[in-house]
Amino acid sequence: LFLPSFIWAQQNKLIVSAPAAPVELSRGSKISIPVKVSTLPGFHVNSDKPRGEFLIPFSLSWQQSGLKSQRITYPAAETIKVGNDDLSVFTGTFNVTTEFVASSDAPAGPATLTGKVHYQACNNQMCFRPATAEVSVPVVIR
Amino acid sequence: MSSDTLSVEVTLKRFILGATTIIVAFLSASCASKPPIHEERASAVDKHQDRKAAPDFTLKDASGNEVKLSDLKGQAVLLNFWATWCGPCGLEIPWFIEFQQQFKSRGLEIVGVAMDTEGWSVIKPYVAAHKMNYRVLLGDDPVSQLYGGVDSLPTSFLIDRKGRIAFVHVGLAGKNEYAKEIQGLLDEKQGGIITRTALDNVVPALLHLGPTK
Q1: Under an 8 A CB cutoff, do B152 and A124 touch?
Q2: CA triple B119-B120-B125, angle to 5 deg
Q3: Is the pTM of this model over 0.80?
């Protein structure tokens, strides 16, 4: 189950959701947590590695917590053409997966991972201001 | 059915038809009279008396000089809200550079209002890289609110020599469309009348500007 996380930012061009049920893991273990992102039809967001120095990359970052984010994996980008420019973008629905590790001395019990998705959405005609969407994931460390 | 009954029924039907027509016309007029500015793809105010004054503002250029929109009265102004991260904006900029060369001597002033929150640290390199030859100002939220919020970029306003908004483009517009509109506004100096043939592709609409709620 994914919990849509109220992300009606940036004129509702993006929906971000994360697992709603608590994610359980043991101290010293790893877990991969997906964040599901959907752009509205006709819209795209720059990929995490946009072509063009002035373009704003898609990014997911996590606040410090009992879990350490080790690696964030973004999907393969698409290339679209706007005017004469080739753009590296994400469209449709995709997952951004983060590998977390619970240290051996992580405090046991429930916790919440809080992340931020920073993005900038466009269609072929116009762009919308950069925006940040928050996402939270309940976890239980045993 | 008697003739009296028939007459009453016909009268009633005519009344209902008339009332419905009036209600529909009223609702249509109500809806049409206040199009949210951000929902307009392209609109024009082709009747001079319907044009609204462009909200005045003062913003700074890269050198820190203040520029007041109302000081440009007497010239036609292409007021373009844009940002360095906006791809479609980048498609229009070469056109504006060309317009600046082509129409400046006839009284066109192009003003680019950059909405980058990072400020001049990103705008200056972009202006240099793209050889932008027209005035660029650093925008802010209060000014964008004056122009309906400017939720999407590019958004451009073509302002006549009397400081009134004649055309609005939300999103990427056509180069030829811009050129025709600019020429029409510049021609107003002489005749005061826009040539309709130059404006065939625009949608007449009223503009209602003001802070967004």
Answers
A1: no
A2: 130
A3: no
